[in-house]
Write the structure tokens for this entry.
Amino acid sequence: MAEQKFDLVVIGSGPAGEAAAMSAAKKGLRAAVIEKRQVVGGNCTHKGTIPSKALRHSVKQLMRYNTQSVFRALGEPRRLTFPQVMQTVNKVISYQVEMHTACYARNRVELIVGEARFRDTNSVEVLLPDGATEIISSEKFIIATGSRPYRPADVDFGHARVYDSDTILDMQHTPHSIMIYGAGVIGCEYASIFAGLGVKVDLINTRGSLLEFLDDEISDALSYHLRDMGVTVRHREEYAKVVPTDSGVIMEMQSGKRIHADALLWCNGRTGNTSGLGLDSIGLEANHRGQLSVDEHYCTEVDNVYAVGDVIGWPSLASASYDQGRAVAAAIVGRGHRIIEDAPTGIYTLPEISSVGKTESELTAAKVPYEVGRALFKHTARAQISGERVGMLKILFHIETGEILGIHCFGAEAAEIVHIGQAIMKQPAPNNSIDYFVNTTFNYPTMAEAYRSAALDGLNRVARL
Ligand SMILES: Cc1cc2nc3c(=O)[nH]c(=O)nc-3n(C[C@H](O)[C@H](O)[C@H](O)COP(=O)(O)OP(=O)(O)OC[C@H]3O[C@@H](n4cnc5c(N)ncnc54)[C@H](O)[C@@H]3O)c2cc1C
């Protein structure tokens, strides 16, 4: 059995693992990444962020073609099948794999394809694709093995009409109807995608409103626009039984309802990928969701074993995973620590949603005196030109200091637009004030105009004593 030794071994090549390994190599460590998939990129590239965003982009283009009058001169509205849009998605995945693979050679990070399992705190056994095993030793380890969809035992995921967010990408047909169980971010995004493809969607939410962590006004807007696209949103429902048949899936609800669709997409919960890691060999234990706890240096209870990304739970975003990867590499070489807790929310529904900072409910509960400024996209020149008039930008700010406390946005490119406000929020006082948007010249016509309109609207509301 061959044996290799490194300063740092990272298990998993998703955003967290890649960022940690590249950053550590740049800091002079001899680093390796072990990845059980034949190609790098993690679930982010192959099952999660990238495919879902590429799918959504194609569907959005299709919707623009079908709804904007300028295209009627080219012909009638068209349909695309799910496998057709997946062809473009697969191209994007290949570009991503090519780009990420090049990073390994460029940064001299050794890539080992195989499944890693701890033997002890300084070595792992790697099961190679040809069935052979290899022992890899290292001073330090980073677990960046990500997460997978949670699969309850009483749902038959082997049935051809039952999908989760990983297997849906292999669907070879376009159903007439689909029920999506779980109305979290992934469920809402797929509800938009399927509705945009003209599929009848039932979105089943176990809670009382959509994405309760959002500002109420934005959550209400999402409900309105999903329903406007034809999605049936059902709140406060829990399944009692899932019955797949030859022609579809019937879901019996605890409320006594029976919902039927051609296919079921299960989007309720995720589990950390820790079960195959041999954690007991190093005295570590994951929680009931398969997640690991870490300290402010992303170190687990074993002092040379670290963990980052989805495997440590919240916020379970690719954006935060990249930053956690860089932060853990800095912590390992003794260059301080940074806990990533201020990631903005980017939700790629149709319309797109993004926010950063506090919501109105949070500020009200904390008795912070704030005011709100709003701008509707339909009143900006840029939105009128692009034809994407649905949307709103909302700025929450302190009435005494003008400090920006929250930015909440929905509509086209919301996830980009939010960064303008985020950059100002991050400035030290008094430069983090809403006044910036009134006193600065922006390109015109751009969506930055929405910031100016929202700022003026908000400042005009402030009651002066
Ligand atoms: C449908 C969907 C949409 C999403 N959209 C967004 C979005 O728009 N924006 C956003 O920021 N986030 C989004 N996310 C979340 C994002 O994909 C994850 O937060 C991110 O992938 C986590 O990165 P990671 O590095 O922790 O792990 P992952 O990307 O999960 O990668 C972990 C890797 O570890 C490997 N591995 C596991 N066990 C072993 C082992 N024992 N040995 C070797 N290798 C192993 C796996 O094969 C995998 O390649 C989405 C997720 C889903 C499911």
Q: What stands out?
A: The CA atoms of residues 374 and 454 lie 4 Å apart. The radius of gyration is 24 Å.
